[in-house]
C-alpha cells in the first residue's frame, strides 16, 4: 500500500511549511510570508527560465500561502504554464492552483481552456481525469460553454476508461447545475441509460445515478432487477464494493433515492420485484449483525432508512409500512443516539400515512420518554415533532400535557415552535373547550414570551364564538391574574375576556366588579402601551357592564397619567372614554359597548404561522446590505413588529382580519399592476396568463417578467410525456427570500412538489424541472404559484403553466385520399366543431405554417385541392387513449365577418371546449382575418378520432359544405 | 395529467476538516461562496460542532442544511449536505475517506494533512466530485493513488 513521507518531492515546500509552523507570532508569520513572496516574485521575474520542478514548487508555496488566508495576486500565469507540462505532478499542482484560486481574467481563461482541451483529447486517462476534475471544481459558465458538448461524448465513448467515465458523468452534473441551458439532451442520453444498465462497472453506475434525471430520456424508468441483485447479494459477491460486510451501501442508497423521484411502477411484475427488494432489506435488518463494528450497522441502516423513505414515498403497501414502523420502533430504544434520532425523524413521516398511523401511535410512551430524557436537544426536537405528528383525538390530552410540561424546561431555540404546536393541537382536538382554555392559559403562564399574537387572538376568538365556555374562561383568567407576576399576554387575554364576560362571574363576592377592576388595574402600570390601550377599552366596557364601577373608573381616566399621557393613543382613549361615559345615556352606552359579535370561522391563523415557520421561510435574512444572514429554524421572525396591533384599530385593539401573513396580493407590491393589466381572458382572479397564450405554438421563451423577476421556460414533449424547465431569474441586486413555488393542477390532476432553495441571490438564476404526464384529456392548465419576499414585502405571482393538450400531439403523415376518406367519415354533426375568428395580424404563409407546426400536428402538403388551405393531422397521446385529429384552416383574404358554430355533442364537450381554447391561443394573435374553426370529435379506427376543421369563410359558401364536397 | 416537480438536489455543499482549535486542514467547496462567506461558514461550523459530545448525534442542523460530522482524535471531519440527504450514508462516507487517508499516509496524523495538503486534494477528488460520491471502493482508490504516486 502506498505511503508518503512528509512533503516528499518538494523539500523547499516542507521547509517553508515548517518555518511557518515555528513562527511564534502572527507578525513573525507575516514577515516570513512576505520574505517568501518576494523570493518567489523575483524568481518568476528573473531572466533565467525556471524549470518545471521549481515552478511547481513556487506555485505550490503560493497556494499554501493563499490557504493560510493571505491574498495572492500573481503566479496565475506560471500555474497555467504548468498545465502544459507532461509531468503528472506539475500538471496536478497547476490544476489545483487554478481550481482553488479561480481567476476571471479572460486571457487566462482562454489559456486554461486550451490546456484542458488538450488534456481531454490526450487519451491519457490520468490527464483526462485531471482536466475533468478541474472543470468539475470550477464549473464556470465559460467552461460550460467550452466543454458541455465534449464531455457527453467522452462519457459514452466505447474506448473511455471507467475512471474517466466516472469523472465525466459527475463533471457533466456540475456543468448542468451551473449552466443548465448549455447542457442539452442529445442522442447520447439513451447511451447513458445503457451505461446505467451495464452492471459490469458499478463505479460508473454510481457516478451516473446522481445525474439529474431530466438528463435521462423522457420515458426512462429505473428498473428494480439491478437493485434486487445488489440488495440480495452476499457480502462476498461485490468484493471491492463491500463495506464492512455490506454490499455496495452507497450505490444501494442512491438507487433507492432515484426511485423516489418516480411514482410507483404500474406494471404488476415490476412492482412485485420492487416489493421483494424492500422486503429483503427489512429482513436483513432483523438478521444478526455480521460485525460488531458501528460501520457495519451504519452502512446497513443507511440502506434501511433509504428503503423506508421509498416505502413512505409509495404509501401504498400497508404491510411494508407497518413493518417499517416496527423496525423504527426497535431503534427508538437503541443505545446509539444517531439511530434514535433517525428513527424519530423517519417515524414522523410514517405517522401521516393512514396505513401506519396507528402503528406509530403504539410507541407514544417511548417517544414521551425521549422528550424527557434525551441529552441532545435535536433528538428532543424530533421527539416533539413526532408527538405532534402522531397526535389525534384519542391521545391529544396526554400529548398536550406532556408537551406543556416539557415546555417548562425546553431549550429556548425550540420554544416558540412548541408553543404553536400545543396551541394547534389544543384547538384541533378540543372536545370540551374548558380544556382548551386551560391549555392556552397554561401556555401563556409557562412560556408567555413565546406566545405570539396569533395564539392569544385565537383563544379570544374561540371564547367569543362559544358561549358555553365564556363563564369558565372568565373565572379561569381571573384566577390566573391573581398570580403576583403574570405575563403581559395573560393581562391582555384577561383584560379582553373580563371586559366582555366579567359579568358572568360578578355574582361571586370574591370576584365582584370592583375586585375585577382592581385586579386588572394593578397590572396596568407594568404593561406596554398596546396592552394599556387594551385595558382602557376593557375599563369602558366595565362601565357598561357594571354601572357601580363608573365613578372609580372615571377617576382613573381623569388622572393626569391617563388624560395627559404623552402617548397620543392612550391620551385619546382616556379622553374619549371619559367623555363617552359622562354624556352618553345608558342605552347609547349599551349599544356602543355591546358584546363583540362572533368572529367568522376561518382557518386557524396559528396553523398558517407554523407552516410559515417550518417552511423555507424559517430563514430570516437582513436585506440592507444584500448579504445573506441565514439563521436556523426558530430564529428571526418572532413577534414581527409589522403585526403588532395598532392601538387605534377597534375598541379593544383586536383586529378582526387574519393577522398572520399580511400576504394579500394587494400589499402594494409591484405585481398588482401586472394583474390589473391581465386581459379579461384570465380564468381565475389574479392569475396571469398573458404569457401563457404565446406558448401554445412554441415551447421556449419568457413566460413572465416584471421589474423583479423573469421566468423563462424550456419544454419538450414526447408522446404523453413532457418535461418543463423553469428558470427563475432575480433581476434585482437583492436576494429574494422564502422563495417558494407550488404547482396545482385543477380537478383530477395531481402534482408532486419538492421545494427550491428558499434563497435566490441578486442577479442569480435558479432552475426547476417539472415532469408531466398526460393521463387523459384536460382543459385547465396547471397553475404555478410563486411566493417570495423582496425587501420585506411578500410577492405572490400566479401563472398558468403553458401545458395544453396540443403539446401531446404526435404528427401523422397521410396521403390525400386517406385524409379525405377519414374526413368524410366524420359526417355527424357532433363529430366536428368549427369556429370563425378574426385574426389581428397579417396572414403570412410562413407564419401560418410555423404556427400550425408549432401546434404539434403534421402539416400535409399537396392534400387539399385548394392550395390556399392548410390541412394537418396528428394524434393526441394521452395515457388513457389516443385521439386522432384532422384539422383544416382556410384563410380568407376577402375578410368577411361571419360567425358559424356547429352543434356540439354534450358528451364530447371536453374536446370542443379544448379546441375553442386552442383557436384563441393559436391564431388570435398573428392573423388578421376571419376564420372558422370547425371541431369534429368522432369514433374511428383507433379509440376515438377527433376532426378539427379550421376553415376560412369564403363569401357565402358554407365552409362545411365545401369541405364535405371536396 | 400527472405532474412531478423536482429540483436538482445538490448533495454535498462543502467538506471541512478542522482541528479543535478551529484551524482548517481542508476546505473543499461544491457551491459558490465568496471568501468572506467561506470564512464565516468555517467559523460557524467550528462553533456548532465542537460543543457537542459523544452522547450527541453526529448530525447537526445548520442554516438550511445539515452537517454530518465525525471526530477523529483532534480532527473534525464535516460534510454539509441537504436536510433530506441520507445521514448514515454520509457518516460512513467520511469514515471511508478517513480509512483511505489512513492507508495512504500510513497512520495518518494531522501533520500529514498539513505537509501534504496538495495530495489531500487529490484523494478528495478521487472519492468526491461535483458534490457527489465518486468512488467508494478503497481498493480502487488506493490503487489509483499508488499509480499517481509513481508518476513524476
From TrEMBL, chain A:
What's this protein's name?
A: AP-2 complex subunit alpha
Name any one GO molecular function: clathrin adaptor activity
Instruction: Provide this UniProt record's keywords sorted from A to Z.
Output: Cell membrane, Coated pit, Endocytosis, Membrane, Protein transport, Transport
Subunit record text: Adaptor protein complex 2 (AP-2) is a heterotetramer composed of two large adaptins (alpha-type subunit AP2A1 or AP2A2 and beta-type subunit AP2B1), a medium adaptin (mu-type subunit AP2M1) and a small adaptin (sigma-type subunit AP2S1).
Annotated membrane topology is:
Peripheral membrane protein
Name the coiled-coil region(s).
Answer: none
In residue numbers, the region (Disordered) covers: 618-660
List the record's Gene Ontology CC terms alphabetically. Answer: AP-2 adaptor complex
Q: Which PANTHER family does the record cross-reference, listed alphabetically?
A: ADAPTIN, ALPHA/GAMMA/EPSILON
| Cell compartments where the protein resides | Cell membrane; Membrane, Coated pit
Single Gene Ontology BP annotation = clathrin-dependent endocytosis
Return the similarity comment.
Belongs to the adaptor complexes large subunit family.
Is RNA-binding one of the keywords?
Answer: no
Please name the InterPro entries in this protein's record: Adaptor_Complx_Large_Subunit, AP2_complex_asu, ARM-like, ARM-type_fold, Clathrin/coatomer_adapt-like_N, Clathrin_a-adaptin_app_sub_C, Clathrin_a/b/g-adaptin_app_Ig, Clathrin_app_Ig-like_sf
The record lists the membrane-crossing segments as none
* Functional note: Component of the adaptor protein complex 2 (AP-2). Adaptor protein complexes function in protein transport via transport vesicles in different membrane traffic pathways. Adaptor protein complexes are vesicle coat components and appear to be involved in cargo selection and vesicle formation. AP-2 is involved in clathrin-dependent endocytosis in which cargo proteins are incorporated into vesicles surrounded by clathrin (clathrin-coated vesicles, CCVs) which are destined for fusion with the early endosome.
Kindly indicate whether the keyword Cell wall biogenesis/degradation belongs to this entry: no
Question: What are the binding positions for a 1,2-diacyl-sn-glycero-3-phospho-(1D-myo-inositol-3,4,5-trisphosphate) in this chain?
Answer: 11-12, 43, 53, 57-61
Q: Which residue ranges does the record assign to the Clathrin adaptor alpha/beta/gamma-adaptin appendage Ig-like subdomain domain?
A: 693-802
From TrEMBL, chain B:
Query: Which biological process terms from the Gene Ontology are attached to this UniProt entry?
Result: clathrin-dependent endocytosis; intracellular protein transport
Mind listing the UniProt keywords for this protein, alphabetically?
Cell membrane, Coated pit, Endocytosis, Membrane, Protein transport, Transport
InterPro entries in the record: AP_complex_ssu, AP_mu_sigma_su, APS2, Clathrin_sm-chain_CS, Longin-like_dom_sf
- What is a single cellular component term in the Gene Ontology annotation? AP-2 adaptor complex
Q: Which family does it belong to?
A: Belongs to the adaptor complexes small subunit family.
- What protein does this entry describe? AP complex subunit sigma
AP complex mu/sigma subunit domain location is 12-151
Where is this protein localized, as stated in its record? Cell membrane; Membrane, Coated pit
Membrane association type: Peripheral membrane protein
* Complexes and interactors: Adaptor protein complex 2 (AP-2) is a heterotetramer composed of two large adaptins (alpha-type subunit AP2A1 or AP2A2 and beta-type subunit AP2B1), a medium adaptin (mu-type subunit AP2M1) and a small adaptin (sigma-type subunit AP2S1). Interacts with CCDC32; the interaction is direct and mediates association of CCDC32 with adaptor protein complex 2 (AP-2).
Q: Name one GO molecular function term.
A: clathrin adaptor activity
Broad class of where this protein is predominantly found: membrane
Amino acid at each position: 500500500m502506498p505511503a508518503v513521507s512528509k512533503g516528499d518531492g518538494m523539500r523547499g515546500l516542507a521547509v517553508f511549511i515548517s518555518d511557518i509552523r515555528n513562527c511564534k507570532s502572527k507578525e513573525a508569520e507575516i514577515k516570513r510570508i512576505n520574505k517568501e513572496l518576494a523570493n518567489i516574485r523575483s524568481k518568476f521575474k528573473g531572466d533565467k527560465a525556471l524549470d518545471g520542478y521549481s515552478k511547481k514548487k513556487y506555485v505550490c508555496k503560493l497556494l499554501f500561502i493563499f490557504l493560510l488566508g493571505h491574498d495572492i495576486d500573481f503566479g496565475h500565469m506560471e500555474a497555467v504554464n504548468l498545465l502544459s507540462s507532461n509531468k503528472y505532478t506539475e500538471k496536478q499542482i497547476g490544476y489545483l492552483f487554478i481550481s482553488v484560486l479561480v481567476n476571471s481574467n479572460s486571457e487566462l481563461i482562454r489559456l486554461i481552456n486550451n490546456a484542458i482541451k488538450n488534456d481531454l483529447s490526450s487519451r491519457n486517462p490520468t490527464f483526462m481525469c485531471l482536466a475533468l476534475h478541474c472543470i468539475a471544481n470550477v464549473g464556470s459558465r465559460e467552461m460550460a460553454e467550452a466543454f458541455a458538448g465534449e464531455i457527453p461524448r467522452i462519457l459514452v465513448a466505447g474506448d473511455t476508461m471507467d475512471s474517466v467515465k466516472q469523472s465525466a458523468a459527475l463533471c457533466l452534473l456540475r456543468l448542468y447545475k451551473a449552466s443548465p441551458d448549455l447542457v442539452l439532451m442529445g442522442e447520447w442520453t439513451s447511451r447513458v441509460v445503457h451505461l446505467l444498465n451495464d452492471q459490469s462497472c458499478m463505479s460508473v453506475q454510481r457516478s451516473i445515478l446522481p445525474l439529474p434525471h431530466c438528463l435521462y430520456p423522457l420515458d426512462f424508468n429505473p428498473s428494480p432487477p439491478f437493485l434486487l441483485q445488489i440488495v440480495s447479494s452476499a457480502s462476498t459477491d461485490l468484493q471491492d464494493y463491500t463495506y464492512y460486510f455490506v454490499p455496495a451501501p452507497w450505490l444501494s442508497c442512491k438507487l433507492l433515492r432515484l426511485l423516489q423521484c418516480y411514482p410507483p411502477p404500474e406494471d404488476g411484475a415490476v412492482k412485485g420485484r420492487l416489493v421483494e427488494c424492500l422486503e429483503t432489506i427489512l429482513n436483513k435488518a432483523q438478521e444478526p449483525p455480521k460485525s460488531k463494528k458501528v460501520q457495519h450497522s451504519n452502512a446497513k441502516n443507511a440502506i434501511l432508512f433509504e428503503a423506508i423513505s421509498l416505502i413512505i414515498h409509495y404509501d401504498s403497501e400497508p404491510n411494508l409500512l407497518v413493518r417499517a414502523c416496527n423496525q423504527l420502533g426497535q431503534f427508538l430504544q437503541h443505545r446509539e443516539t444517531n439511530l434514535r434520532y433517525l428513527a424519530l425523524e423517519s417515524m414522523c413521516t410514517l405517522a401521516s400515512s393512514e396505513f401506519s398511523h396507528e402503528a406509530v401511535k403504539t410507541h407514544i410512551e417511548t417517544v414521551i420518554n425521549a422528550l424527557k430524557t434525551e441529552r441532545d436537544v435535536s433528538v428532543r426536537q424530533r421527539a416533539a415533532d413526532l408527538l405532534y405528528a402522531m397526535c389525534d383525538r384519542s391521545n391529544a390530552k396526554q400529548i398536550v400535557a406532556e408537551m406543556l410540561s416539557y415546555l417548562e424546561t425546553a431549550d429556548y431555540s425550540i420554544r416558540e415552535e412548541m408553543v404553536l404546536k400545543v396551541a394547534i393541537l389544543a384547538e384541533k382536538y378540543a372536545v370540551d373547550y374548558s380544556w382548551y382554555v386551560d391549555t392556552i392559559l397554561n401556555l401563556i403562564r409557562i412560556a408567555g414570551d413565546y406566545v405570539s399574537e396569533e395564539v392569544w387572538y385565537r383563544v379570544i376568538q374561540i371564547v367569543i364564538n362559544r358561549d358555553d365556555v365564556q363563564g369558565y374562561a372568565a373565572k379561569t383568567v381571573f384566577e390566573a391574574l391573581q398570580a403576583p407576576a403574570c405575563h403581559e399576554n395573560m393581562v391582555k387575554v384577561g383584560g379582553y375576556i373580563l371586559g366582555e364576560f366579567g359579568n358572568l362571574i360578578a355574582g361571586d363576592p370574591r370576584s365582584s366588579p370592583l375586585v375585577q377592576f382592581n385586579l386588572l388595574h394593578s397590572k396596568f402600570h407594568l404593561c406596554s402601551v398596546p396592552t394599556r390601550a387594551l385595558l382602557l377599552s376593557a375599563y369602558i366596557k366595565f362601565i357598561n357592564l357594571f354601572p357601580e364601577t363608573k365613578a372609580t373608573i372615571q377617576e382613573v381616566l381623569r388622572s393626569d397619567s391617563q388624560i395627559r399621557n404623552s402617548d397620543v393613543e392612550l391620551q385619546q382613549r382616556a379622553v374619549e372614554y371619559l367623555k363617552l361615559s359622562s354624556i352618553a345615556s345608558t342605552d347609547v352606552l349599551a349599544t356602543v359597548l355591546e358584546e363583540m359579535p362572533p368572529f367568522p370561522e376561518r382557518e386557524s391563523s396559528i396553523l398558517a404561522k407554523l407552516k410559515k415557520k417550518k417552511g423555507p421561510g424559517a430563514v430570516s435574512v437582513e436585506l440592507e446590505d444584500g448579504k445573506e444572514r441565514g439563521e436556523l429554524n426558530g430564529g428571526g421572525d418572532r413577534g414581527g413588529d409589522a403585526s403588532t396591533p395598532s392601538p387605534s384599530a377597534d375598541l379593544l385593539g383586536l383586529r378582526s382580519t387574519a393577522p398572520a401573513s399580511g400576504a394579500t396580493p394587494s400589499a402594494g407590491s409591484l405585481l398588482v399592476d401586472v394583474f390589473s393589466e391581465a386581459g379579461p381572458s384570465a380564468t381565475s382572479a389574479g392569475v396571469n396568463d398573458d404569457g401563457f397564450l404565446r406558448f401554445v405554438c412554441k415551447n421556449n421563451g419568457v413566460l413572465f417578467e416584471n421589474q423583479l423577476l423573469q421566468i423563462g421556460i424550456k419544454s419538450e414533449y414526447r408522446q404523453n410525456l413532457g418535461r418543463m424547465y423553469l428558470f427563475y431569474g432575480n433581476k434585482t441586486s437583492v436576494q429574494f427570500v422564502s422563495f417558494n413555488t407550488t404547482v396545482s393542477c385543477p380537478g383530477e390532476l395531481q402534482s408532486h412538489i419538492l421545494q427550491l432553495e428558499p434563497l435566490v441571490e441578486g442577479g442569480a438564476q435558479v432552475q426547476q424541472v417539472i415532469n408531466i404526464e398526460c393521463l387523459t384529456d384536460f382543459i385547465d392548465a396547471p397553475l404555478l404559484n410563486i411566493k417570495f419576499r423582496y425587501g420585506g414585502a411578500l410577492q405572490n405571482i400566479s401563472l398558468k403553466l403553458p401545458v395544453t393538450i396540443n403539446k401531446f400531439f404526435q404528427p401523422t403523415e397521410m396521403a390525400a385520399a386517406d385524409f379525405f376518406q377519414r374526413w368524410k367519415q366524420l359526417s355527424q354533426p357532433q363529430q366536428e366543431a368549427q369556429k370563425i375568428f378574426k385574426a389581428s395580424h397579417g396572414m403570412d404563409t410562413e407564419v401560418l405554417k410555423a404556427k400550425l407546426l408549432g401546434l404539434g400536428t403534421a402539416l400535409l402538403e399537396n392534400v387539399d385541392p385548394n392550395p390556399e388551405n392548410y390541412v394537418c393531422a396528428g394524434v393526441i397521446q394521452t395515457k388513457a387513449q389516443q385521439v386522432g385529429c384532422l384539422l383544416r384552416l382556410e384563410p380568407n383574404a376577402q375578410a368577411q365577418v361571419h360567425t358559424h358554430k356547429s352543434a356540439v355533442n354534450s358528451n364530447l364537450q371536453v374536446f370542443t371546449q379544448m379546441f375553442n381554447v386552442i383557436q384563441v391561443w393559436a391564431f388570435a394573435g398573428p392573423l388578421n382575418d376571419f376564420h372558422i374553426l370547425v371541431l369534429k370529435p368522432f369514433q374511428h379506427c383507433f379509440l376515438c378520432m377527433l376532426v378539427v376543421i379550421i376553415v376560412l369563410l369564403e363569401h357565402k359558401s358554407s365552409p362545411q359544405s365545401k369541405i364535405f364536397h371536396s | 395529467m400527472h405532474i412531478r416537480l423536482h429540483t436538482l438536489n445538490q448533495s454535498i455543499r462543502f467538506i471541512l476538516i478542522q482541528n479543535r482549535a478551529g484551524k482548517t486542514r481542508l476546505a473543499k467547496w461544491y457551491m459558490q461562496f465568496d471568501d468572506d462567506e467561506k470564512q464565516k461558514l468555517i467559523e460557524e461550523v467550528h462553533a456548532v460542532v465542537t460543543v457537542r459530545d459523544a452522547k450527541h448525534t453526529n448530525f447537526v442542523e445548520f442554516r438550511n442544511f445539515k452537517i454530518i460530522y465525525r471526530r477523529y482524535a483532534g480532527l473534525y471531519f464535516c460534510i454539509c449536505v441537504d436536510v433530506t440527504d441520507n445521514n448514515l450514508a454520509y457518516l460512513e462516507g467520511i469514515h471511508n475517506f478517513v480509512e483511505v487517508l489512513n492507508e495512504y499516509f500510513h497512520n495518518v496524523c494531522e501533520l500529514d494533512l498539513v505537509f501534504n495538503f496538495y495530495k489531500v486534494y487529490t484523494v478528495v477528488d478521487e472519492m468526491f466530485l461535483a458534490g457527489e460520491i465518486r468512488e467508494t471502493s478503497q481498493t480502487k482508490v488506493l490503487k489509483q493513488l499508488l499509480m499517481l504516486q509513481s508518476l513524476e
